[in-house]
Amino acid sequence: MFMRNRKLLSFGLFLVLIFSTVLAGCGSGDKKETSSDSNGGKTLIYGRSGDSVSLDPAVVTDGESFKVTTNIFETLINFGEQDTSLQPGLAKKWEGSKDGLTYTFELQEGVKFQDGTDFNADAVVKNFDRWMNGNADKFPYFVSMFGGFKGDKNAIIKEVKADGDNKVVITLNKPQAPFLKNLAMTAFAIASPTAFEKEGDKFGDNPVGTGPFKFVSWKRNDSVTIEKNKDYWQKGQPKLDKLIFKSITDNSARLNALKTGEIDLADGINPTDAKTIEDDSNLQLLKRPSMNVGYLGLTSTRPPFDNVKVRQAVNYAIDKEAIIKAFYNGQAEVAKNPMPPVIEGYNDDVKGYDYDPEKAKQLLKEAGYDGKKIELWAMPVARPYMPDGQKIAEAIQKNLADVGIQSKIVSYEWATYLEKLTNGEADAFLMGWTGDNGDADNFLFTLLDETTIGSNNYAYYKNAEVHKLLATAQSETNEDKRNDLYKKAQVIISKDAPWVPLAHSTPLLAGKSTIQGFVAHPTGTDKFNNVDIK
Amino acid sequence: MLHYIGKRLLQLIPVLLGMTFIVFMIIRAIPGDPAKVILGQQATKEAVAALRANLGLDNPWYIQYFHYLGGLLTGDLGESMRTKVPVSTEIWSYLAATLELSLFAMILAIVIGVNAGIISAWFQNSWFDYTAMVFALVGVSVPIFWLGLMGQWTFGTQLDWLPTTGREDTRDPVTAITHLYILDTIIQGRFDQLIVVLKHLILPAFALATIPMAIIARMTRSSMLEVMRSDYVRTARAKGQKMFIVIYKHALKNAIIPVLTVIGLQMGLLLGGAILTETIFSWPGIGRYVYDAISFRDYPVIQSGILIIAFIFVMINLIVDILYSVIDPRIKYK
After folding, report:
1. By C-alpha distance, which of A90, A78, A141 is closest to A120?
2. Chain A residue numbers touching B176 (CB-CB < 8 A)
3. Strand (E) or helix (H) holding B248
4. Ramachandran area for residue A261 (φ above 0: left; ψ -120 to 50: alpha; else beta)
5. B12: left (phi > 0), else alpha (psi -120 to 50), else beta?
6. ipTM at complex level
């Protein structure tokens, strides 16, 4: 009895298998070449490496969440199309007082949230009230960028008030130079007060903003679908009817999906795949302006790197050009400062260190380096600023051996890696940073100030003079004076050599050649207002 | 029999309890602070401290553990630290995705593996035997991710026959009812979508099926060879029974017991081991769900995810044990 059933079952299954294979074969003819869905609308599928955490921009810190929310919500101030200059957004114009303590915003009129609620001064105030009465657990980015919440001693924002229907006045406790840049970050987009008051903690599942697209559905770990907001206040936008964000973790698999037409646009393209995309007439290679730095950190509390001469020697020993040619496929420029040249306050007069092994050997001799073998930490994950940590570490290992420094390459799983770096457990380590708001403070202070030891200052770099410069710059509202402070800091940092700055890379994307109007933003959050499909 | 099943189910309790404890301790022993990972590199120390307090991470481990156990007893699997979504509300959709994929893969592995093994044993040392066994050897050795990527490249990019990612056409998504898309599309009468869903299954299922298929084929072959040398098979053949009947009716029955053990084990491994396949094919299954949770140190998701995978693993073993006695009445459980 059992046998007969089993045979029947196998036979049935074979039929299913053959059936589906035949179907698969036949199916190749009706491949969806166009991007239209059944209703004839224009749909674009954007493949990316991970899913969003939440669609409430205020509660998250990850780029994948912002990629979606920046198209549902809008900020008072926008970044420029391909830079971080300040442009009007939901605020038509704004004005800061001389002392840098009061900002007045004049709002766009006639704007409505996607649920029909009016966008006005009252709505803006309610958003700020929501954030300022929160806590670090709920609104982590708010505390990172604005110091604290209502009543905290480090809080930057004192109060936010409506002045009539279309004017908002923000008063600060102390001046904050990058204040307007911070406001332009997607995390501080204005949400519909009706919606977040009604939804509470569930707002992230039903986000409502003023943006060009409105939320439709979210299949977690798979895709987020948003569709055209027909009542969008900027006429003629958006051009797409539907925009779908699809998570495809593996870079190669994502490129495969682009080639088969399952997606229309792919983020996170390996530099090594650039050539095949350029050679394919159906595809176009898209470049994201660089706003990052990849570096080799030298923990200055650990011998031999507690000696500045050894750190300088390592800077001379490493052939950055060769590394960029080999592992970034040329899609990067050599770094000499801890921040990329697009950032205001970049000091181009800093000479940096050329590749000079002889000089390195001489410096090591002067330093009395004892030949102690060091650990060289390789980043375990690929990032645009560090496409292949293991291979780059091997190249550096060779460079170091050439000048007489023996090293052993080690690596840990990513969360462990970060934890150990925070504790200052590495001798030399590969690491990098992508800017949040395009401000110098977000690189220099965040990564190299003595107060950030234990968070992002993994090199444990400490210099009183640099600290003074960076801290002063935070509240200096005169742009020129502020830039001068950063330029001075870069000179000292270069001389102290807590890092070997390696590269500012150009992150790559690829899309079908029919896509028009897509402009990749350096922050990684791309707006689809003007994107169209031919 | 019922008594036996009851006893086995009771034994589950200490097994699962012990497992929660081990998983709980291991994930806390590895370095990496969930609060820091969740808040990102930008986070201030104050924010990290506040989040730790809120997540209860500053309590001693035994308080955290009993808190978790208490929740489990009331059916609360906890809530993701990162997305704040309760594990119980979202785990079924991931589990269903993995079940659909691994059942499909297992059926492939069994149908092809068992038959290939039988034919190899039947025609021992023939060209079929050699070819099949070389394939089986390659099958157990080849890395899944390579096989997956090659499958995508060949059947997706080059031949354009099969889709390479996900479970459905993103432009025409399936409305989830049971989250088993084959069932869902049938229930809704969307046979056009059923075809799309089946097409999406083929590449990942083959990638996932390769290793178990090879192991099953080798096991079946060696087990069959042994049985076919036994007296009763010779008697059956001497009686003039057709070879096909001898093999499929008489020999297979005795040969299948060790194969069944392997199938049970492989099925369990598939569930947990689908991570690579799920990553390459962007399959929103439980393997990727737990894997992502590990990289984010999302303790409740790791704990409950592994608990559920372990539960299924143990249940499959129980089913296999029961099947033994169904196939071979000499095996009796008390």
Report:
1. A90
2. 219
3. none
4. left
5. alpha
6. 0.82
CA distance B238 to chain A (A): 22
Q: B296 at the A interface (CB within 8 A)?
A: yes
Distance (Å, rounded) from C-alpha A506 to C-alpha A340?
Answer: 11
Distance CA A279, CA A248 (A): 23
- Placement of tokens 């989830």 in the chain: B176
The full 3-state SS of A397-456, as one line of letters, equals HHHHHHCCCCEEEECCCHHHHHHHHHCCCCCEEEEEEECCCCCCHHHHHHHHCHHHCCCC
List, for residues A480-497, the tens digit of each pLDDT value: 999 999 999 999 999 999
pTM metric for this prediction: 0.85
Which residue in this structure is represented by tokens 């292949």? A388
Residues in A touching B115 (Cβ below 8 Å): 10
The pLDDT tens digits of the residues spanning B252-307 come to: 888 888 888 888 888 877 876 688 888 888 899 988 888 888 888 888 899 888 88
Distance from the first to the final alpha carbon of chain B: 7
Distance from CA of A12 to the nearest CA of B (A): 11
pLDDT tens track for A237-296? 999 999 999 999 888 889 989 998 999 999 999 998 999 999 999 999 999 999 999 999
A394/A220 Cα distance (integer angstroms): 38
Q: What's the rounded Cα separation, in Å, for the pair B71 and B241?
A: 61
Are A411 and A397 in contact, with CB atoms under 8 Å apart?
no
* Surface of B (216-245) touching A: CB under 8 A: none
> What is the average per-residue pLDDT within A408-414?
90
In the β-sheet with A265-269, what is the strand arrangement from edge to edge?
A: A213-219, A223-228, A242-247, A43-48, A265-269, A508-512, A283-287
Q: What is the CA radius of gyration of chain A?
A: 26
Return the CATH class of domain B91-327. mainly alpha
Distance from CA of A212 to the nearest CA of B (A): 20
From the list B238, B222, B245, the residue with the least C-alpha distance to B129 is B222
DSSP letter for A1, please.
-
In order, the DSSP letters of A177-223 are TTHHHHHTSGGGPBPPHHHHHHHGGGGGGS---SSSEEEEEEETTTE
Residue B135 tokens read as 């394939």
Could you give the residue ranges of the DSSP H alpha helices within A73-186?
A: 121-132, 140-146, 179-183
CA–chain centroid gap for B1, Å, is: 27
B63, with CB counted inside 10 A (0-12, 13-18, 19+), is exposed
Helix (H) or strand (E) holding A79: strand A77-79
Tokens 């369990």, residue located: B268
Which tokens sit at A288?
């994201």
Residues of chain B with CATH 1.10.3720.10: 91-327
Distance CA B37, CA B150 (A): 34
Q: For residue A118, what is the DSSP state?
A: B
